[in-house]
Structure formats: structure tokens, C-alpha cells
Amino acid sequence: MTKEDIYLPLLEEVTKYLKTKEHLDFIKSGFDYAFEMHAPQKRKSGEPYIVHPRDVAITLAKYQVDPNTLVSGLLHDVIEDTPATYADIKEKFNEEIADIVEGVTKLDMIHYKGSKASQQVKNHQKMVLAMAKDIRVIFVKLADRLNNMRTLGFLDDARQTRISRETLDIFAPIAHRLGMYRLKAELEDLSFKYIYPAEYQEIAGLLTDKKENRETDVENMKNDLNKLLDSENFIFDITGRIKNIHSVYYKMKHKDVDFEEINDLLALRIVVQTISDCYRAIGIVHSKFVPLPGRFKDYIAMPKPNMYQSLHTTVVNRGKIFEIQIRTEEMDEIAEKGVAAHWAYKETAPSKASSRKSLENIVSSKLRWYSELIQYTEENDSEEEILNIFTDDILNANVYVFTPNGDIIDLAAGATPLDFAFRIHTKVGEKTVGAIVNGKIRPLDYTLKTGDLVEIKTSKNSVGPNENWLKIAKTSNARSKIKNFLNKQRREFLIERGKEELDREITLKRVDIKITDDLVEESFKNRGIKTLEDLYFEIGKNVVSPIGAANLLTGKEELTDEDLLEKINKAELAKRRYVHSDINIIVEGLDKPSVRLANCCNPVLGDEIIGYVSRSSGIVVHRQTCNNVESFEEARLLDVFWGTNTLVKYVSNIKILGINRDNILAEIVHSATASKAKILQVSAQSNNVKEGIIKMRIQIGSLVELNHVISNIQKLKGIYSIERIG
Ligand code: MN
Fold first, then answer.
1. Domain 650-725, what architecture?
2. Strand pairing partners for 619?
3. Which of 191, 367, 457, 575 sits most deeply, having the most CB atoms within 10 A of its CB?
4. How far is the CA of 44 from the centre of ligand 1 (A)?
5. Quick check: 556 pLDDT over 50?
6. 622-677 residue pLDDT tens
7. What's the rounded Cα separation, in Å, for the pair 280 and 275?
8. Catalytic status, residue 81
């Protein structure tokens, strides 16, 4: 076989969609390079090695991939099997091709260790990471694997079995997820043949056995349908379908049915021109043939997560059961080629599907899980987290629910409204205070079912996730976000507490000292504390004693009496001028205006606040997050600050939502009191889903104290959410 003979079949396939000399020369140069590099090698079949990369490129050309992907297919084995390096490829071709080839090479390094779940997860993970970087890596890899499977017969038994298992466990599911049905079916059938040769032969035998009968049945039905649709002014095409052997086996095994009971063996596909034709056609089919109850499926209105769209029905004709699929040409193309159908390269619009970013956009817009994967990759730093989320929540998804906009969200089995909320957005999850499923209020630990319409109630005053949520949330995505929140919240809370304690000790020492990060680092070198914030955190955790820290930081540097007097005078002066000490608010530049705290949002010391110059009652201090603030005139807002009086008490209202169990009210009251809150008023009621709603009016000294109360209540069993209300 000459070099030209080997190249010709690829050229034939490529010229079906690439015509320009520039492109054809480029692909030829890729072939020449691969030919040269692989020249001394032979495959197990005895053929020159180059036949393999050529075949991979032919497979890719059938999907009309862009020239870079095609050349990557030709070069996919050169880094691993020849002296060529990444740098060589980058120099001779371009960086994109070098990246794809390197990605494929890395995937080859994964050693498949068997079908154990943990191993499978690891392997999936590597695929996923490569996929998140550039989905074309996976595409080249799938083409590579398909061609290896086709020539597997030349390997020994042990390798045949191992490679087939790997294909069935890893590559076929990925192809399925990408909607590449044709490739997936071939991968499955080839693997099945090597792993279960007896079963394969048996089913293949059964399929050919009564093939003639079946073909006659299908032919008859086809004629009937033709006549029927012809009378209705349709442009359509009807074909019989062949079921892949592995899926027949899968059905027999998992549904425990006999071969004869598989009723989609007699299957037809009607391809029409428009979506409305699809519905027209199904109406006509149903008007003539009796549909089997429960077998009509509308995947046009509700596509599968891998983008598959079609109408399915099962009808009876002449005593035989037929499965019929109805779809448009475009849907048919996508059903066969999956996401690859969308990035078919067009020379007339060369920029469209050629760069990694634009490809990512195309795939993201078509495959929800892919856009989620990319989103996770952007949100999370830890590869491990991304992988857990992806494998647990996306690959294993089996509950499909709707957003109020009609978008489908796929979640792992057992998922709850919290999982849904965090899937929508981290911020939605963190502010969740309730769930409405199919128009009814449901508890946050409600188990979602496929088809549920889920709406999440949020409140910007929600204090956010608590430990209980970790028990309610079932998906890795939600759990990882809840943990992040809790860690961060805990740290912030402890820093605040540490600061308060250290400030108090330093004030007591009557020392005028500015504590800087440098001073902290110098004083606490031996304990690994580097910044003031770290020190507060350590004090907050009770790891460092505030008295000890104050001693260490201030040394012996006490103030003289004169210094002290001057300081106090300054402070007093400041107070006289600005501070309204009854409510502990400072208004700059105004002499004794009337000031009060707003009772719509009840600010407490430590809240971010803003003043509003009201028309009749002076300055009213609101929380910055108060709903009313949005509607205020900009010109009437002014900056206000908290004073230093720590004796003032503040009122706060909180609303607690939780399981309506025995004693919960008593426990909440006890917890609040033990956290030094004074309870002014409590009311409790329950709603129709056995949730308790408890409203409490309490008195506390600061936001730190309020957060302390809240975090202690959150620790109680069965608390869903807490929010500060009016
Ligand atoms: Mn290969």
C-alpha cells in the first residue's frame, strides 16, 4: 500500500465538507507528519501504524469537525508513541492542536483498574477534567476508542476483555451524555461482543432468526403509514430502525423480559419537516392506530438532558406492537450525532466552530450539564470538588424538575429543594427560606420527584445555611457550597468576637497603641500568627487568651496621666458634639438633631446603617439592607455611624422555620436565653406541611450577640432557616 493509497479514503471523506486548498494542504501536512513519525511502526494486524490515525481522522471527518480537530486526530498518538513533543507540534502546527494532542495523551496515561465503582469514578473524573479544558479532547479520544474497538480482534483475550470493559464503563456513557447515539451504540455492541460472547451470539441469532418476519411486519406497517400520511399532504420519510444488540440485552436483563416481549423490536421512524408537522403526524397516527397507554412521550417539549428530541409512541396494528418515533431532520441529526451536530465546521463561516471558546459556548448552550460543568470549574478551585459534583450530581442525575421558567434541572436521586436552590445559584441557595413545589408549600427536606415544578422562596434577610442543611442537602454541589458558607461564617463570627475581646483588654490597659499586622507578626512569630485578623480569629476560638495577647502586644508601654487625660477629653468632646448616646448613633456635622432607630428594620450595633432625613421625625437610622431604603430619595440619605457606648440594648425580630416537633419551641427559647438574649415576645404557629414558624422579639447588645443567638438556635435539630424580619 503506498502512502497515497492510505491517504485517499481520508481525502474522500474530508472533501465532502472542506474544499479550500488551504484546508486540504493543512490536513495533508498533518497526515505527512504523522506518516513520517509513525513510519517504522506496525499495528498488531500487520498494517502500517498510520492506518490507525487515518481512520480516527475519517471518523472525525464524518462529524465534520474543524481542521484543527481533524489534524489532532491524525497526530493523536505521536507524543505518546514517537519522539515528537508538544513543542514540536506547537511549532509545526499550532498551539491548539498541541493542546488537544497533549490532552488525549494524558487520558491515555490513565490506567483502568477495573469496574469497581471507585475506580470508575476516578476514570470519569479524568475525562471530565479534560472535557472542561477542551471538549475536543474527548471527541478525538472517542474516535480513537471506536477505531481501537473495531480492530480489537487482533489483541489477546485478556486485553480484549479489559479494553471492552473500559469502553462499556467509561466511553459509552460519555458518548451517551454527549448525545452521540450512533457512536455510543457501536461502542456498546463491540464491547458487548468481547465481554459476553455467548450472549452476544444468542441475541444476534435471535435478531436474525425471525428477521424476515419482522421485516415483513415493518414493511406492512410502513405501507399503512405511508398511505395514511400521503392523504394528509405531508413531506416525510419513513424508515425501519435496527436496535443495537447491547440495548436488547440490557432490556432483557434489567426489565427481566424475554426477547419476544421487547416490543420496540418493531420500530419505525418518521422524519418530517417542522415541529408542528411532528404533532400533526402523531395526531394522525393515533387517530388510526390504538396507542398503548402510558407509552406516549413528548421529548420535543421536554428534551432529554443530552438534547435528544423526538415524539415516541407505541401503537398496535394487525395484532403487532410497533414503536414509532417522529421527529424533524434536525432532531434526527442531533439524535445520531449529538452535540457534534452543532459544531459541524463550515468553510463559509470559518470562525464559528473553530476556537475553543466559541465551541465551549455552542456546547454550553446545547448541553445544560456541560454549561454547569464549566460554571463549576469557574466557581471552584479544587479539582476534587468539581469532580465530585460532576460525577455525583450530573452523571448520576435521575430526577428532572422544572424551574418556574420551564427550564429543566437534573439532580441526583433524593435531591431536595435545597439542592435545587443551590443548583440555580449559590446566592439563591444561601438566601433560601422556603420551597413551593407544584404550587404547594413543602418543607426544605422534601424529596423531589421527576416533573415537579419547583419555586424557591428567598429572603435577603435570611441568615443563611446552617448545620442542619448539610443533612437536608443530598447533592455534592449544594453540600460543598453550604460547607463553604459555614466555614466562612464561622470565621467571620470568631474574628468579630476576638476583636471585641482584645479591644476590651487593650482599653483596660490604658495604652495608646496602634496594633499593626507587623506588630502582631513580630509578637506571635513563634505561634505562626501573621496578621491582626488571624490573631482575632485565634482569640475568638479561645486558642489565644485576650489578656495574654494584650500583654504581649502592649509590653510595658503604659500611658502617662497627661496623655490619658487628653485622650479622654478628646473623646468626651467628640461625644458632646456628635453622639446620641441613648441610641449610640453618631451623626457627623449636625448639632443635636433628633435621631431614632427605624422600626421597620431594627438596626443593632454592628449592622451597616444609613440615615434618612425624614420629613417630620428627624433622622431615622435604617439598616442598609432595609427594603425601604431602596425607595428613599438619594438626597435625603446621610452617613451615620455607631458610637462607642456598649451599654445600649437593641431590639431584633427573628423568624425561625423548622420541623414542627415536640419541644422545639422550648428548646429555641432556652437556647436564646442561654445565649444572653432577653426575650420580649414569642409567637408560634404551624403550616400545612408540619413546619413550625416561630417569631421572636429579643433584646441584645450587638450584632455579634445576635449572631451568637442565631448560631446557637441553628444548632438545634430540625431548624431549616432563620431570618431577621422587621
Ligand atoms: Mn490511538
1. 2-Layer Sandwich (3.30)
2. 595, 613
3. 191
4. 13
5. no
6. 999 888 888 888 888 888 888 777 788 999 999 999 888 888 888 999 999 888 88
7. 9
8. yes
